[in-house]
Amino acid sequence: MIKRTLAALATMAAVLGTSAAACPDWQGRPYFGTVELYAGFSPDPYVRNVTAGGTNDLARCGLNAAGYVTSRPDFDLYWRGSSSQMTIAIEARADAVLLVNAPDGSWHYSDDYRGTNPAITFYNPQEGLYDIWIGSYDGSRRNPARLVFTEFNY
């Protein structure tokens, strides 16, 4: 009986470990790079070409979000200075989703802000690291996209 209980616990731990490994990990190295932007940056908007999509189902990660992302962030933003607002947006032909882990550890999600393109505006954004995932709603991968940062109204 004890062996059976230990085996069941080991199996459960393995399953939970697999689930966690398939969720966003803010500590991972970003696929498309890093940028440090200061309040008042120029030119505004700052735009990077990226790819939207992933294989990890956000619905299984306890984030109250839908869509598919990679485990590692797609991009890291180090935000410096004081500004009234900073928007992170995605422009893609695919139905994209946007997931951001803010410097305070809070998670932010967007889907369909402008058409099927997501955007998140941070008012009085905190200084620090913003980990960014650019996913797809339907699980498609390798979708060309543009990652946009702006302090203007979006």
From TrEMBL:
Signal peptide: 1-22
Keywords: Signal
Domain of life of the source: Bacteria
Xref: PROSITE patterns: PROKAR_LIPOPROTEIN
Protein name: Peptidase S1
Native organism: Flavimaricola marinus
